[in-house]
Amino acid sequence: MTPWMTTETGSQTVALKDNPPLVVTSVMPVCRLCKQNYPQSQFITGNGPRYQVCARCGVQHGLADPEDTPQLYSDEILNARLSLYTRRHLPWVSVLMGWILFLSIGRGIELWSGLFFGVLAISSLIIPVLHIMGKTRFLAELAKITP
Questions:
Q1: What is the pTM of this model?
Q2: Residue 117 contacts by C-beta under 8 Å, 6 or more apart in sequence?
Q3: Which end of the chain is less crowded, N or C, counting CB atoms within 10 A of the terminal residue's CB?
Q4: What are residue 4's DSSP bridge partners?
Q5: pLDDT value at position 114?
Q6: 68 & 79 share domain
Q7: Mean pLDDT of the 42-51 span
Q8: Domain identity same for 84 and 130
Q9: Same domain for 79 and 141?
Q10: Domain count of the chain?
């Protein structure tokens, strides 16, 4: 059958076509073993039992050596990366939690509400500056621990 058909309705000719989707979605492959979606770079190469298996499942099931999967991070690297990201974003979380506490229960305390507000106001001004200034150090440390 052709991708389009022509029908006669009175004196008009109407062409019926398969319309392409409005939004083109990229399909991410699914690991056969853990059923998780990953980008193609996270899969080990090969045919047979190694086909469509992510690096972590490949190492866990003995289909690949850890040396053959550079995209798989060891536990030490994962812990170092988690620690690095935690140190980078902990001040933002602290200030956000401080504002939530201040707005919910902190305004009712007479002396401490003014001090608490002053510390939060100063922190809200200093944290973005420190975040921007520490970006290059963060990226350098991230590049150092990433294989």
A1: 0.57
A2: 102, 106
A3: N
A4: 17
A5: 86
A6: no
A7: 84
A8: yes
A9: yes
A10: 2
- Residues whose CB falls within 8 Å of the CB of residue 66, separated by 6 or more in sequence, listed in order: 59, 72, 74
In a domain, 9, yes or no: no
Which pair of tokens denotes residue 105? 């229960």
| Contacts of range 59-62, beta carbons closer than 8 Å, 24 or more positions apart | 61/33
Identity at 107, one-letter amino acid code: R
Q: Give CA angle at 115 (113, 120), nearest 5°.
A: 90
Evaluated on CA atoms 37, 43, 45, 51, the torsion sign reads negative
Interacting residues of 91 by C-beta distance below 8 A, sequence separation 6+: 123, 127, 130, 131
Q: Would you say residue 6 has pLDDT above 70?
A: no
117 and 131 in a common domain: yes
Same domain, 60 and 80: no
CA angle 140, 142, 146 (to 5 degrees): 120
Look up the domain containing 31 and give its range: 27-72
At 26, is the pLDDT very low, low, confident or very high (cuts 50, 70, 90)?
A: low
Residue type, 4: W
Q: Please give the residue that has the higher pLDDT: either 38 or 92.
A: 92
Answer whether residue 27 shows pLDDT above 80. no
